[in-house]
């Protein structure tokens, strides 16, 4: 039985990843900050309580595993017990496979399209942050196997830091979506249970295949516009849905007082232009058909969760 060390299991992606790994007969060690941390209760999941001072203990338990999993979201989680640098060094020292999922990017915008008088909107190429990529390349040279799976916006109405949770407002009679970009511009959205399931299937099917030391690939997810999401929410909620523009000047003012909105502002160019992976990148492929939850069902499930919470 293969064994995984998973960071961030109290977050949505970490929880789904634990479930997907266990369904494929992995044994999972999940790192938590303390005994009060919310974590899934699953067979074959062992919770390990740690703090930033427990690096020696972390090395000790990591010697028992095959792979390390960590999700690095665009809205960087300040509750991380260990830094990415420490996690990469751990995989490097013990020669473990490191699996990183992320939507934290640098963007490379065409100079002309960034000018206010230039009306043509072109998708912006996204890249891993240069500092992170250089560190991963260094680990690759030292013999570490690394899979980086890049994804789009999180398709969730329940996350505090999820964009949909911030964009959607509900009244007794209708639902309002605040659109920070053109309503019809398609974006890449990721339903995290799909991402976790496809990632684990990919690893299982390619277990015996020789892979390059650093494999950076892109998860296609769901391509949908704000108008598509509005239509799906109308079906899911049973209420009329209206789309209202979100003014960036107002967001800039709110961002002076809100860390959440400051993070949101960093994605402004992607909202206005859309995104695309580098031409040299590959897409996640498995030997079996890709598993995708339809957008309507994904939104419906999240909507029901949100309704129950409210």
UniProtKB/TrEMBL annotation:
Source organism superkingdom: Bacteria
Gene3D superfamilies with a match to the protein in the record: NAD(P)-binding Rossmann-like Domain
Pfam families in the record: NmrA
Every NmrA-like domain range: 4-243
Protein name in the entry: NmrA-like domain-containing protein
Annotated organism of origin: Photobacterium marinum
